[in-house]
Amino acid sequence: SNLLFAQHARFATEGIIEFEKTINMHAYIKKLINKESENFVQPMLDQYKKSQPQFKVLKSTLSFSNTRTLFTPESTENTSIGFIKMFPATGQQNVIYTDITANSSISQKKVFEETFLVKDSTRKINWKITSETRVIAGYDCRRANAIIMDSIYVVAFYTDKIPVSGGPESFTGLPGMILGVALPHENITWFAKTVTDKPIASNTLV
Q1: What percent of the chain stands above pLDDT 70?
Q2: HSE value, Cβ hemisphere, 13 Å, CA-based, for 183
Q3: Which of 85, 123, 170, 201 has the smallest C-beta neighbourhood within 10 Å, fewest atoms?
């Protein structure tokens, strides 16, 4: 007979993930320039380059427990300057609760000076899983691609070591937790920095 050793694999079903959203502001503003707007936008871009860093970084947390997640930005204010505040993608203003089993979500959205709670079904994303892998926050992740809103190309990386079909913002629908999302043509990414495997009190996911 032979003595065999096996490592016990732990699959986290509860915990907190810290995400960073990164926006390449120089590239984002440059895409706003066209023949009609160049006389206005180009000077703004030049001024932005002189006074602000190229990459804007925003922090958030995703608390999860089995079939429920709560995405909470560190700040719900758009900290962009000047006319850039007109573009929601340059900030993080939504708090999003998701019930994966019920395929439903509730988003807290701020529109001008008013705050709304918007209930909706979770976004249906037709993911195509690939063989590409990478390590994010210590977890082996697999790549998946999709098109959302008819034309926006999305790249996501998920891990089956966290068997919760959640992710940052409203990205869901993969067989494991999404730890990385990139919108290449929009110059925006979300990537997990830390994952803390710990019990979550049920009254915090509301």
Answers
A1: 90
A2: 20
A3: 201
> Taking residues 92-120, what's their average pLDDT?
93
* Nearest-angstrom CA–CA distance, 24 and 94: 20
Q: In 3D, which of 180, 206, 205 has the Cα closest to residue 15?
A: 205
Range 86-93 contact pairs with CB under 8 angstroms and sequence separation of 24 or more? 87/28, 89/23, 89/28, 89/186, 89/188, 90/23, 90/25, 90/28, 90/56, 91/58, 92/21, 92/58, 92/60
State the residue for tokens 């160049």: 38
Residue found by looking up tokens 């098109």 in the block:
147
Long-range contacts of 121-124 (CB under 8 A, 24+ apart): 122/98, 122/170, 122/172, 122/173, 123/148, 123/170, 123/171, 123/172, 123/173, 124/173
Evaluated on CA atoms 92, 189, 140, 142, the torsion sign reads positive
Range list of H helices, the chain: 25-30, 38-51
Say if strands 128-136 and 114-121 run parallel, antiparallel, or are unpaired.
unpaired
Which pair of structure tokens corresponds to residue 99? Answer: 């019930």
Token pair of 147 as six digits: 């098109």
Q: For 39-57, how does the pLDDT look when each residue is reduced to its tens digit (9 = 90+)?
A: 877 888 788 888 889 999 9
Query: What is the model's pTM?
Result: 0.88
